[in-house]
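Protein Entry — a single chain follows
Next Lines — sequence and tokenised fold
***
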Amino acid sequence: EIFIKASAHKGNIRHRKISSLFIKIDDKLYLFKEDDVILIKDILEDEGIKKSGFDLKQDYILLLPYDIELSGLYFDVEIGEYLIDSSGTNNDLSILSKKYGAGDIKSKEDFFGKGKSEKNLMEIPEQELFLYYWDVLETTERLKDIMMPLIKENEMENLFFEIEIPLIKVLGDMEYHGIMVRKDVLDNLKE
């Protein structure tokens, strides 16, 4: 099983470029820059290698422009939290980490800033980015280990693995490619 998280430059969904792709395998973190992502296409598309993360739909979408379809999706902390506690309104990793006792991690906003003070990815020293994403993926792994038994205990394994996880690709494709609607049918529904 590998844990994955992509970071991207700002921009339109169809033109956003990956700045860095981080992959955690056991106790090692690997950093792939945009030009290197294609070198691990076989790993990313391999159904036999489980991929876990936080907001895997975003990672899935970010890889599509590189002709990479992230496969082997296994566990998404954001979806796990939705099933365990659908009343939650803030699924920031730092909040979930505190909620489940999985450690303390800077929020995305605290690390990157917000609005006018938001840092450009190119301004952040690589070592600082590396350490932040190490914390992100370590926390993701701990949360997965905490959430999985809760999903089993609440008898939601089938819902999680058979419906929610496959929906990552469906919703990611819809978000990236868009959907067709028939205006005449929508107009008829108004009546």
Notes: Residues 126-153 form the longest helix (28 residues). Strands lie at 2-8, 18-25, 28-33, 51-53, 73-76. The chain is about 45% helix and 15% strand. The chain has a mean pLDDT of 92.
